[in-house]
Design goal:
heterodimer, A: mainly alpha, 4 strands, B: mainly alpha, Cytochrome Bc1 Complex, Chain D, domain 2, 2 strands, binds protoporphyrin IX containing FE
């Protein structure tokens, strides 16, 4: 039996690896190097296939079902699919990491936690697939010409996508159902390898889907009329592909962490005994840790994405940041601030687990002050909403003090501080339960204080001098050393702490489970804000194409070709968020049901043995 | 343990919030003379309160200190008089707030005008079509290649500016020309870091050539008084005045290459 199983596994593994290697030959040009990407016309003569230009549609070309708003249907379904997709992409990433941590520390709690995480994502995985199918159905139904056009360009990659999806499912099932069987020694390594494979196929899947999305924003591999050159790689590797790949990858990990955190909070609040509470508290802490760790680099990835949009098209950049969508970014800033605040609050509450925390409690208010001030700067809008009386008093819509806070350098400075002080919260949390025993504690602390001070001064100088008194090239360039400063502070502090607390004493064992329910609601808030934020940003990304299906190439002539108002969009996203949350709670509930057993005495016939 | 006499937590909270609130008003409206918009102050205060609540509730003891007086107010029989007063005042305040926010006012509705709407991808001017994605100032290159010629071009641009623009945009380019006070929206201040300093030259070209009426629908109603300069200036003059705008203010147009 054992032998047969392992043969099946090896077979599956082999097939999966084979499929991955096969991919380059299915997707033409995937192996072509970047340098050739621009020579799109070369392929034409070889293939001698001619492609049609992008169709010019009229209203009649969009099928209508009375009483159904096709845009809203596609919008919500796509969004739900994306949320679940992000979730099932992210969970295996940190399951892999946690499993590896478990293997190296030989602490079985990690392995159990990793298993519990992947268990949640199994149901979510099938929901992702169902929603994906529904999305394709909706697109074909409501936007057949657009779908057709994209399908002629991306047919190979769509096929690869489907194939990869099967590969991923197969690997996921083996990974999950084989968890307890593939334990110990070599088998554990095989299991870990499966995890790696799972992640590789998941990431590839997302990159492919991102290619279609970004092609619609920054088309490549086609001429001005939309005639496809035949070079799929050029179309995939379009201008915004990598910026979105990076931002989404990191965002998804943070997002996955927040959803799992919500799961832990859900279980914590419904736990019946101390052990369960302790377990889910620990799980929530770890999930939140993952979410924060991925949250910290996100603003940078976000700015990179925006900067690239600006480079691609000034029109797009201004629509995004200065035009109709500028207000969305205020909401975005508020939501991101809410993310940072709830993550910090959760950490502070969590210090109650330690007996040594009171030493650090007094410092938290200073952290709070910096966080709140940075946050206020971060969401100060460039265009203020003024009543007429205010307009008159100011003598115009420009505010001498708040105006400069509305533009990038101020925001960059603020966000770097937000990140640094969130990190500081985390450092205090880590130290709360420890007493360092090395002789150079005082010196180590002094170095860290000096490091933070110097770094913060540097961030300020970069933000104010270079940010306001030089040209845009330097302004944008100045944000890079700012980020580097932040990263260097974090890296050195982590390193110093690692040495300083080597062999340190514990104040007392951590009391997992001793956190107030408030903190668990912070975890919920984190998940909901994340979900809403994702929906909002997806709307923006899609909206900046304005009346184009494919920017400047394929016009949207449906009755819905206008940009919906902000309030309307927010409502659609709220509804979608509620649907998603309901589905997620259903998934959570399923996981509790599966571990419950009811005794139905007298129901089953007695078996005579 | 020595118990220090402290201000009760709840009062602390109220004092801090009120202090920050009046602090904002004092700093902006009185000291700096630039009032803080109400919409923004509301947003600020919301998060200040959130922050304060976070600090006050992250430990059990402090949360209890905060909640206990409120609990006592509702439950403690000896606080009956106070309770009744509070129970009258709170709904009353809510009522007053609702009434005043629903009261019709003669204030014109707030306009959310986008100062920098997105430019079209292509524009028509001088009987030609321009692709704004690739359009560049033909004179920009002289800045390095032929500084003398560049100075001359900037000077000519300055003449154009004095003849055409300073009435509105001001002789210091700060948006405070003699006519500015009578206009709404006011002419833009080119010294400000938020205007030409963050725009590409092609954008400025589009704005000057097509003026207020050239603004896209999203900036509607574009009651802007900015003239359509295509009717009065040649293409050359437009590019030169752009050189002048940047040169005089010391800003550099937005660009993506490092020098
Ligand atoms: C702390 C900062 C940030 C966080 C937490 C954050 C979070 C997120 C999340 C969760 C998503 C959804 C990812 C997905 O669909 O898989 C997203 C997408 C997006 N973000 Fe950010 N982001 C941040 C900063 C920014 C910034 C500064 C910008 C630009 C100004 C930005 C622009 C976008 C855009 C345009 C999208 C849509 C991409 C898509 O379709 O998925 N982000 N962001």
């Amino acid at each position: 039996m054992q032998k047969r199983n392992s043969r099946i596994i090896m077979g599956a593994l082999f097939t999966a690896v084979f499929a991955l290697f096969l991919l380059p030959s299915i997707v033409p040009g995937l192996d072509a190097s970047l340098a050739f990407a621009d020579e799109t016309t070369v392929n034409l003569d070889v293939d001698a296939v001619t492609y049609d230009p992008a169709p010019k549609l009229t209203e009649a070309d969009y099928p209508k079902i009375s009483g159904v708003n096709s845009r809203v249907v596609v919008w919500i379904v796509a969004q739900l699919h994306l949320w679940f997709g992000a979730f099932v992409l992210a969970v295996p990433i940190f399951v892999f990491i946690i499993e590896a941590i478990g293997m190296s520390t030989r602490d079985q709690r990690y392995d159990n936690m990793a298993y519990e995480f992947i268990k949640i994502s199994i149901t979510a995985f099938s929901l992702t697939a169902i929603l994906g199918g529904l999305l394709v159905f909706c697109l074909v139904l409501f936007y057949p010409d657009l779908f057709n056009y994209l399908a002629t360009i991306f047919k190979e990659s769509m096929f690869a996508y489907a194939l990869l999806f099967f590969v991923e499912s197969a690997v996921l099932y083996v990974y999950y159902y084989g968890w307890h069987w593939l334990q110990g020694g070599f088998k554990k390594w095989v299991h870990l390898t499966l995890g790696l494979l799972l992640n590789a196929s998941g990431a590839l899947l997302m990159f492919l889907a991102n290619a279609w999305t970004t092609f619609m924003m920054s088309p490549a591999g086609v001429d001005a009329a939309g005639v496809f050159s035949g070079d799929t790689w050029a179309a995939i590797h379009n201008f915004l592909w990598n910026p979105i790949n990076i931002h989404r990858m990191i965002a998804n990990v943070a997002y996955g962490g927040s959803i799992v955190g919500a799961y832990a909070a859900f279980k914590f609040l419904s736990a019946r005994n101390k052990e369960q509470r302790a377990h889910y508290d620990w799980m929530g802490y770890n999930a939140n840790f993952i979410a924060i760790a991925a949250l910290l680099p996100l603003p940078f990835a976000g700015y990179y994405l925006t900067a690239e949009m600006y480079v691609y098209s000034q029109q797009m950049g201004i629509t995004l940041m200065g035009g109709v969508f500028a207000w969305i970014f205020i909401i975005q800033a508020v939501l991101i601030g809410a993310l940072f605040l709830s993550a910090n609050y959760y950490l502070w509450c969590g210090m109650g687990r330690s007996e040594g925390a009171h030493r650090y409690n007094p410092y938290m208010k200073y952290i709070a002050v910096v966080l709140v001030v940075s946050f206020l700067v971060w969401f100060t809008p460039h265009t203020l909403v003024l009543t007429n009386a205010e307009l008159k008093s100011l003598g115009g819509p420009y505010h001498a003090i708040l105006g400069p806070l509305g533009i990038m350098p101020a925001k960059n400075t603020a966000v770097n501080l937000l990140i640094l002080f969130t990190f500081l919260s985390f450092m205090f949390y880590r130290r709360a339960n420890k007493i360092a025993t090395v002789p150079w504690v005082a010196k180590g602390n002094a170095v860290q204080v000096a490091l933070f001070t110097a770094g913060i001064i540097n961030i300020f100088i970069l933000g104010t001098y270079y940010g306001y008194y030089t040209n845009t090239v330097y302004k944008i360039a100045a944000s890079i050393p700012q980020v580097l400063t932040t990263l260097v502070i974090i890296a050195i502090s982590v390193a110093i702490d690692a040495f300083m607390y080597k062999g340190s004493k514990e104040v007392a064992p951590l009391r997992w489970g001793r956190v107030p329910p408030r903190s668990q609601y912070a975890l919920f808030l984190l998940a909901v804000s994340f979900t809403w934020l994702m929906g909002l940003m997806g709307y923006v990304r899609s909206g900046i194409r304005q009346h184009w299906h494919v920017t400047n190439i394929f016009r949207d002539n449906s009755p819905d070709a206008y940009t919906p108002g902000l309030g309307y969009a927010a409502n659609v996203i709220s509804i979608a968020t509620i649907i998603f949350m309901a589905m997620v709670i259903f998934v959570f509930w399923l996981s509790t049901v599966s571990s419950q057993k009811s005794q139905a005495t007298g129901y089953w016939k007695e078996q005579g043995t | 343990m020595i118990k220090k006499r402290r201000i009760p937590r709840l009062l602390q909270l109220v004092l801090i919030v009120a202090g920050v609130y009046f602090g904002f008003i004092l700093t902006f409206d009185v000291i700096l003379g630039q009032l803080i918009p109400k919409s923004l102050l509301t947003m600020y205060m919301f998060f200040v309160i959130t922050g304060v609540l976070m600090v006050f509730t992250f430990t059990e003891e402090s949360t209890r200190e905060l909640i206990d007086p409120i609990k006592a107010l509702v439950e403690d029989p000896s606080k009956k008089v106070l309770r009744n007063i509070v129970f009258v005042i709170v709904p009353l305040l809510a009522g007053i707030y609702t009434y005043s926010s629903l009261l019709p006012s003669f204030e014109a509705p707030v306009e959310l005008r986008t100062i920098h709407p997105a430019p079209p991808s292509k524009m028509k001017a001088y009987g030609k079509r321009f692709d704004l994605a690739t359009l560049e100032n033909p004179y920009r290159k002289y800045e390095k290649e032929d500084p003398d010629k560049f100075r001359e071009l900037v000077r000519e641009g300055g003449d154009v500016y004095i003849k055409g623009c300073q009435y509105c945009h001001g002789d210091k380019l700060d948006g405070k020309g003699p006519y500015a006070a009578g206009l709404n929206p006011t002419p833009l201040n080119f010294q400000d870091v938020g205007t030409i300093a963050q725009l590409q030259e092609s954008y400025i070209f589009w704005r000057i050539a097509t003026g207020g009426p050239g603004l896209p629908a999203e900036a509607a109603p574009w009651i802007s008084s900015m003239p359509i300069w295509e009717d009065f200036l040649s293409e050359d003059e437009t590019w030169k005045v752009i050189l002048f705008l940047y040169d005089y203010t010391g800003h550099q147009p937005r660009s993506w290459e490092h020098e």
